[in-house]
Write a structure and sequence with these properties.
single chain, mainly alpha, 2 strands, about 10% strand, about 160 residues, two-stranded antiparallel sheet
Amino acid sequence: MEDDFGFALGVVFRAYAKVVEAAVAEIPGGPRGYFTLMAAIQGHANSQRALAKRLGIDRTIMTYLLDDLERADLVERKPDPADRRSRHIVATEHGRQRWEQLSGPVGLAEQQLLDILPEKSRATFRTLLRTLAHHVSPDNPMAIASQKPDRPPAGRSGRRSTT
């Protein structure tokens, strides 16, 4: 099983999620709240709908999450000057401070997870992971599924055994 891509990816994701969840537990929504706050700080929260799509969060859940983040004075919704029906999600000063405080433990969690890799491979791994994530972004989540390989992946015949 360890040689299977999906299995390995799942193991790494669950380890990362567990450590990050503990690091950001005090933020409303845990990791979802942390990544929403980060998107607001980095200017990637131009609309609630776009942010929900980007983070893979149901729009209804996103509404409740933003309500909780606003109550905690971490973000605020501001009207889009070009479209009054739309809201920009903006980090408050308190939100920026909290993110700064929490980004250290999250970074440490990432570092501990990647410590098994040779130091020169860590940057390459991050770059490759970002490339893959961009390719299967929420704007195109089925990019891989829609591509049909010319032949089965190495090590697989493409047929099921009848025995």
